[in-house]
Write a structure and sequence with these properties.
The structure is a homodimer of 278-residue chains.
Chain A lengths: L2 H15 L8 H7 L3 H7 L9 E5 L6 H11 L6 E6 L5 E2 L5 E3 L2 E2 L9 E4 L4 H6 L3 H13 L2 E4 L3 H7 L7 E2 L15 E2 L4 E4 L2 E4 L4 H13 L2 H10 L18 H8 L3 H20 L1
Parallel strand pairs in A: 1-2, 1-6, 2-5, 6-7, 7-11, 8-9
Antiparallel strand pairs in A: 3-4, 10-11
Chain lengths: 278, 278
């Protein structure tokens, strides 16, 4: 790149990224910069999309599962991100954070570029047995370009019949349940098999979201989103994986899951038998 | 620890952590386990607190700044986490995610264990000039045990006069503005100076939240929370810090900030002059 090309690229990029919700005020500097129009014309065409992104909201979901990817998806210039619930009523997370949907299962776009499902605890078990939610996921997931989840969200995808024969992951302590959905249990932070992309527990949503930004735009774009989010994590402890946690911490955490896993398995098996009978 | 002691500890821990919102269903297994009552009695007393935690919500804030810490704070057994806004009206983030407050500036508890402020773009500039918000922060922050922020939230703390003479950080591209709040600009993911704890950009909220969990409980507790959240990040790119991003990505990102920084400085200076005159 010549210095002039580079200058144009940077102007274009700055103008482009100002459409990102994070720093709306930068739009001012872009529009007042002398060469912005020229810059805007130089903008790589594929940096602006028109994706329809559908993210499921349900009572008792884990808010961080949802908001990590939502942050990344909403940085996709031109994309529309829909927060989809059964009704327009507020949805309260497992940690008492209440979110408002932007649309409903019936009104959400029929063709989605990304379908996303967050995880949770009791609320996830309920969603795995909710006929309206499962019908919505089976329908949109059958056509969506990318079918994605974080944490135990993959168990809901599984209940909707969307993971049969696919490699997939989930929260580390619940991954074993995936086989009852016909999925091939895989270990990994972000597991991709064809157009299914499933993330590990809770915080894996940031990695999954950024991975999708890279897939839908390009590496420079995704890296700019990463730098804007200052996503250079420094966890103060080293216990985030069952491989690095102490045996006591791991045992303590595993002891919380048998009942959840038993109920999740029962829900998947009942669903399978229901499909067989019908 | 003898095997019996260890068994008791693990039962206690499992029972204890079931009070965490993440896996409510585990409470069932805990209460049906034979030795749970005994286990509950063995629970380390300091694992359950009664903290009052106040988290500010304002229009145009970055949702992930808020939800990272909210996830960690809400794992503190016995703590009450308040989502505090000017009114009970829904609050929409810079990325169009709408959250409901649980209380207001005037009704929030007067004595807080943690006061927390998220960052954002235009919305943050507005909050830095909002007399009611600043009066609330100055009041609660004067008595709170911990005064904390993520990203440009530190500029709001600064506008409220809470960082004068304290080392503090902010989003990397806005850190230089802190000197206009009388703070000592510091580089760091989570910067602690006495009872002020400020985090770097957006995603630093997970590190800040987990750091506070460790301070308010202990390392085992925080590590269990980390493992539950599977917080073993694997960013798909290495551009999360200005030190690791390519020069082009860094320049592109920096180009978005001059106007924000100019306006933030002006707000801090106007505030200082206002205080001098009054």
């Amino acid at each position: 790149m010549t210095p002039t090309q580079r200058r144009h690229f940077l102007r274009a990029a700055a103008a482009a990224m100002t459409a990102s919700p994070w720093l709306g005020q930068a739009a001012d500097s872009a529009t007042t910069a002398p060469a912005t129009n020229e810059g805007m014309q130089n903008l790589p065409a594929h940096w602006t999309g028109k994706e329809q992104i559908g993210m499921l909201l349900y009572p008792g979901m884990t808010a961080l599962d949802f908001v990590g990817p939502q942050h990344m998806f909403s940085s996709l210039m031109g994309a529309q991100v829909h927060h989809i619930a059964k009704t327009m009523a507020p949805v309260t997370s497992d940690a008492n954070l209440t979110l408002l949907p932007t649309t409903t299962l019936t009104r959400a776009p029929r063709d989605l570029d990304i379908l996303f499902v967050p995880g949770g605890g009791d609320g996830t078990l309920a969603a795995m047995q909710d006929a309206a939610v499962l019908a919505f996921l089976a329908d949109r997931g059958g056509r969506a370009k990318w079918v994605t989840s974080v944490c135990t969200g993959s168990l809901i995808l599984g209940a909707a019949g969307l993971l049969k024969g696919y490699r997939a992951t989930s929260h580390w302590a619940t991954r074993g349940v995936l086989s009852d959905a016909g999925a091939i249990e895989s270990e990994g932070r972000v597991v991709r098999d064809r157009n299914r992309i499933t993330g590990a527990g809770v915080s894996a949503g940031l990695d999954l979201g950024l991975t999708l930004v890279g897939l839908l735009r390009d590496q420079s774009y995704a890296e700019t989103v990463q730098l804007l989010a200052e996503y250079a994590p420094e966890p103060p402890y080293n216990a985030g994986s069952p491989h690095t946690a102490s045996p006591a911490v791991r045992a303590m955490t595993e002891a919380m899951f048998p009942q959840f896993n038993r109920k999740a398995r029962a829900a998947l098996i009942a669903r399978k038998e229901g499909r067989r009978r019908s």
